[in-house]
Amino acid sequence: MQLPRTHWSEALSRRVFLRSAGGTLALPWLASLPQRSAYGKRVSDTPDKPPRRFACVYFSNGVEPEHWWAKSAPGGMQFGPGLQPLLPYRDDLCVLEGLFNAQSVANPSAHLGRMPNLLSGAWVSLDQNDLRVGRTM
User: Are residues 82 and 115 in the same domain?
Assistant: First the structure.
């Protein structure tokens, strides 16, 4: 049985489809191209700033507090022995401790429900095979 030919099947040939699909694959990289005006000059003369990054270091079984600390000091932040490798970046860091989210306490899993909830604000599934939470920071 052959399907009847319509206006759309004639307009969408295999070649047109493949050309469009190829263009679609390139779309994610389009944003990385520099923006230029009609005269070939950059739209902005100011150099692009690098994007802000967020990193979270979490130890599910905790750490020894005497090794993992950061204190403010007149010359900048002072780091404990555990944070010494980050010393060259101390002007770019913000070290937080003692974070608490009451919603995470309701989760009976001591490890699974605490930190993912703190980063996303969403309820964490207790199913060990389904570790979805939602978008995080």
Answer: no
Query: Alpha carbon of 11 to those of 3, 23, 44: distances in Å?
Result: 15, 18, 41
Helix (H) or strand (E) holding 77: strand 76-79
The C-alpha angle 56, 58, 60, rounded to 5 degrees, equals 160
Tokens linked to 50: 């690098």
Check: pTM over 0.70? Answer yes or no.
no
Do 84 and 104 lie in one domain? The reply is no
N-terminal to C-terminal alpha carbon distance within the chain: 54
Confidence of residue 23 (pLDDT cuts 50, 70, 90): confident
